[in-house]
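User: Please look over both lines:
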Amino acid sequence: MVRAVNVFVSYSHEDEPFRVELGKHLSSLRRSQAIAEWHDRQIGAGTEWAKEIDRNLKSADVILLLIRTAIK
């Protein structure tokens, strides 16, 4: 069996709705175990958040950056 691709999602917390929507679009890939998605909302209480982010960033195969531009 092929190993799942580790996907690290980076985003601004003010863009949480976009991250949630992205998660919906990636759900079939997660269910088929093609990817393992990670974002900072998965950090448990009492966990050293900086170390947890670094660990997941270093193990990522793909880094998705959610960037929103303000058009005025």
Notes: The radius of gyration is 13 Å.
